Amino acid sequence: MATTLLRRGAATALAALAIALVMLAGQALAADALPDLDQEVPAQLDVRVGGTAAQPSYRLGFGSGVRNVGAGPLLIEGRRVAGSGGRMVARQLVEQDGGGAPRALDGVGSLRYVRSVDHQHWHLLGFDRYELRAVGGGRVVRDRKSGFCLGDRYRVTTRAVAGAPAAPVHTGRCGLRMPGLTRVTEGISVGYGDFYAAHLEYQDLPIDGLADGRYLLVHRVNAGRELRESDYGNDAASVLLELAHGRDGVPVVKVLASCPDSARCAAPGAGGPAAAAVPLVRAARRGPASLLCSLSAVAGGWRP
User: Fold this and answer.
1) What pTM was computed for the model?
2) CA separation for the pair 229, 73 (Å, rounded)
3) In a domain, 64, yes or no
4) 242 pLDDT more than 60
């Protein structure tokens, strides 16, 4: 009797151990292949003058790029019920190392159908944020960005990224001119990035009324960390600027330093690179031809 009970107990324990091992193996096979969103340094800066001759206004323009240097793609799926308005609920689809269906993560944000001269498609809101901060002080200007239409718009060429597909995968237009969609998918593949040109859909900040001094232009992806990624330490990048006004009141902006992976760019020491003047340009009339955001690739990769 006792021997029988011992045998049964041992069999039960072995069965439980086998189940646990299978579950652990399954977890190992189903490990998340997470993206790693790397914020590029603000680039292609200029100061655009608009308004009238009697009352000009000035905006600091900049290009912004985010690249994926992680183990898996960033995949975003938006869904909504037909007739429920111009927003979709977003969820992140995380691919698994062992293959199989991706794991869905809810509550990562929302997508909105944007209508403007430059845009008529679905944007993931809050993907990338921009602000101007006074050195030693707080934020003085914040963006009005309407979101990103995510895609593989340029290839990462400045570092090796394992697992990058030979050709871009996400080349769609995020439901261009299709406000009635109830589902849309967009993303950034491993080894690729997305880029928005200066002055396109609020890719600029007003600098009217700012005092002379030093400022930080900070770009930050995934600011609220709603998106799951493997590393959040490279989500911000910045440039240190010096602003001065001539006797005519025209702002002169110089770039003193550029700092990847940091929201607190410091001035270079002695022997560092010389300050670079930011060009002053006249505002041009925008039209459909300026739809540069995510509908065409950036030739040659990221261009600082």
Assistant:
1) 0.83
2) 10
3) yes
4) yes
